[in-house]
Every structure is written in structure tokens, then in C-alpha cells.
Write a structure and sequence with these properties.
heterodimer; A: 187 residues; alpha+beta; 2,3-Dihydroxybiphenyl 1,2-Dioxygenase, domain 1; eight-stranded mixed β-sheet; 3 helices; B: 193 residues; 4 helices
């Protein structure tokens, strides 16, 4: 470490602010075994499951508070050992506009974005990219909140989309995708 | 995967704690400086503390995005832990110190081995650390330092890292109220300093 690290400061004018770590997704050997651990021992609750037909090996989304998932468990595959640990990590921003700002900001820094739009379970609107070591990161807004009744949104409402513009043009039930600055969307 | 069995799993009644949020994630990285530049300059994180490789193998940098002392911790990769193995640990916050004491008891009752209980250095949170079935290192913590608008971080000479909850509770850092309420009976008085 040659640069005094505390000299690396947040640049003034960064056009978004990450508020919190929203969720972490892990590769695991046996989803059922892991669910017993996370639910029975740590008190998580299951929000959604992806079965084999939706994703090789399947996945489970579990919550620790009202956010649709705080942890996601992905089946390890031949390419991905369980010991590889991290599938991805996601940061929440406070507004939909900031997801667009973050997209523009990464583009301005020539940082490749490998997904944008709306994922399925959780229906958050997101961009995804890698850090310098290849850790997969997500910046998102608008993840489903699960109330005391414990009901997750039915899968037939999910509306996966592969661009931010497509995601906001076709909102899921209950999601207000109005941009405060409409010029952020590209035609 | 047995979907019906999974869907029927639910939070057991009477669990003696509730995890409130994901607090931070630690990752192994190849080049601390390169990664710190990325997380500060591109993503807008701020550096709370940096530990030189002389003090900790590989070194570490603690970064915040809000008031918690760190949301991301970067650990320099070593031969044992190369970069790209990704995850160092995931930490979850509970709202009260009593819950930390209770979760240690709870894990002991379920015979889940505990790697560490006590107080960490940077951030000074009280922790219980253990592994999930695949060996992912998990931390449950209470009382991480909050960094205000002035950006002043607690000086290192106040950290008091210790390897038992009893010792951490008996010898609080400045500004940390380590009064345990009803869970006091679960503490071992012999281990307190």
C-alpha cells in the first residue's frame, strides 16, 4: 500500500449514495441443508425459490427483515464450487433516479455493466458490474417489502426486464417507476 | 431439492434474538490500493480505517457508505487466501447486546462451533463468529462505531480487541454502554476481567 489510503476520499458530486448492503448471495453445496441452518438456527424466512427449470441447481431467497431477501442461496455448480462463496452482493440506493445516475457514472468511468433492468424474485431495478477482483456487485432500488402476513409477490407478476428503460416502462404492480428527472431515460 | 419441505421451513417460535440487517461484508482482494480506489472513487465509499500488512497478514481497509464504521472490509489476499476466492465474511447486526449473549448460548445449544466471541479491533463491535454448513464465515454483532458528518474515526489506541464476550463487556471502549439486561445469567462471571 503505497498511497496513504485515507487520502482516497469520496469524490464531491458523486451522483448517488449507497445506503446499505441490501443482500448477499452465496454459493452453497446443498440448498436444503443451508436453509435448515439459516431458517432454523438463525431465524431467516423463505421468500421465494427458483427451481431447476428457472436456474441450474435452483436458488432460495430468504429474508431477515422486510426486504424480500437479505441472503440468497445459489446451488454450487461444476463451474462454481461452494467454497467460492460469494455469488454477488447488492447495495441499495434511496431513489430510482440514482440507479440511472449510477449507470451513467459507471459508463463515464468506462466501467463495464453486465446487467441492467429488473431481476425476477424481489423485482428490484438494478445494474450489475464487477469490482477489480471480479466480485459481482449490484446497485438497486425498489426491492419488494414483505409484511407481517409473510406473503411474497406471486411469480406471475415478476416481469424480468433487460434494460432500465424497459423496466420502468412496464412496472410491476405497486412499483412507482416515475423518474424525478425523466431525461435520465434514453428513448 | 425438496420444494415442499423447503417451503414449510419457517422461523422457529421463541428464537431468543432477531437479526436486524446485514451490516458488512469482508472480501479478499488482490490489490488493496486498486480496490480502495474503486470503492471510493467510483462507488463513493469513505475510508474509516486501514491496517498495514505488517499488523495483519495481507492488510485490510474498512470502508463506510453510511454511518456504520464499515459496510465493506477489504482484506489483502495471501497465499492461503488468494483473491477471487471472494468472501472473507458476512456480518449481521442485532439491535441489543443481550441478543449477542443469547445467540452465543443458542449456538452452543445447537452445537454450532463458535470461532470467536469478544470484540474486534476496527469498528469495536461485540461479536459472535461461526461458520455456515459450507464454511462461509458469519458474524453476528452489536455496537459498531458510528461515524458522523465530521468524519472522525475512533483512534486505534482505544480499540481493546478481546477474545471473550465477558471480557468485552467487563472492559468497554469509550462511549460503549455494555450493560447486559436479562441475559446476564448467561454470562460466565469467571471469564470477566
Amino acid at each position: 500500500m503505497s498511497v496513504p489510503l485515507p487520502a482516497l476520499k469520496r469524490p464531491h458530486g458523486t451522483p448517488f449514495r449507497l445506503r446499505k448492503i441490501g443482500h448477499v448471495a452465496l454459493f452453497v453445496t446443498d440448498i436444503e441443508r443451508s436453509l435448515h441452518f439459516y431458517c432454523d438456527i438463525l431465524g431467516f424466512q423463505v421468500s421465494d425459490l427458483y427451481q431447476e427449470d428457472m436456474m441450474p441447481g435452483g436458488a432460495a431467497f430468504i429474508r431477515l427483515n422486510t426486504d424480500h431477501h437479505g441472503i440468497a442461496l445459489f446451488q454450487a455448480t461444476q463451474d462454481r464450487d461452494p467454497g467460492a462463496g460469494l455469488h454477488h452482493m447488492a447495495f441499495e440506493v434511496g431513489s430510482l433516479d440514482e440507479v440511472f445516475h449510477a449507470r451513467d457514472h459507471l459508463k463515464a468511468h468506462n466501467w463495464p455493466i453486465h446487467f441492467q433492468g429488473r431481476r425476477r424474485a424481489g423485482v428490484q431495478i438494478a445494474i450489475e458490474f464487477h469490482d477489480p477482483d471480479g466480485h459481482n456487485l449490484e446497485i438497486y432500488w425498489g426491492i419488494d417489502q414483505i409484511g407481517s402476513e409473510g406473503k411474497a409477490r406471486p411469480a406471475n407478476q415478476w416481469k424480468g426486464a433487460s434494460s432500465l428503460e424497459a423496466a420502468i416502462a412496464d412496472p410491476v404492480v405497486g412499483q412507482d417507476t416515475t423518474l424525478l428527472d425523466p431525461s435520465l431515460a434514453r428513448g | 431439492m425438496n420444494v415442499d419441505a423447503i417451503k414449510s421451513m419457517s422461523r422457529p417460535k421463541g428464537l431468543p434474538f432477531r437479526i436486524g440487517k446485514l451490516g458488512h461484508v469482508g472480501m479478499y482482494v488482490k490489490d488493496l490500493e486498486r480496490s480502495t480506489r474503486f470503492y471510493t472513487q467510483i462507488l463513493g465509499f469513505q475510508v474509516s480505517d486501514a491496517i498495514a500488512p505488517g499488523e495483519l497478514p495481507g492488510g485490510a481497509v474498512f470502508l463506510r457508505c453510511a454511518t456504520d464504521h464499515h459496510a465493506i472490509a477489504l482484506f489483502g489476499a495471501t497465499e492461503d487466501h488468494p483473491a477471487g476466492t471472494g468472501l472473507h465474511h458476512v456480518a449481521m447486526e442485532v439491535p441489543t447486546l443481550d441478543e449477542i449473549v443469547r445467540i452465543r448460548e443458542h449456538l452452543r445449544e445447537h452445537q454450532i462451533p463458535i470461532n470467536l466471541d469478544g470484540r474486534r479491533g476496527a469498528g469495536v463491535q461485540l461479536v459472535v463468529e461461526f461458520r455456515d454448513p459450507d464454511g462461509h464465515l458469519l458474524e453476528i454483532y452489536w455496537g459498531i462505531d458510528q461515524i458522523g458528518s465530521e468524519g472522525v474515526v475512533r483512534p486505534e489506541d482505544q480499540w481493546k480487541p478481546v477474545r471473550s464476550l465477558e471480557e468485552a463487556i467487563g472492559n468497554p471502549v469509550e462511549g460503549q454502554d455494555t450493560t447486559v439486561q436479562a441475559a446476564k445469567k448467561l454470562l460466565n462471571p469467571k471469564e470477566a476481567v
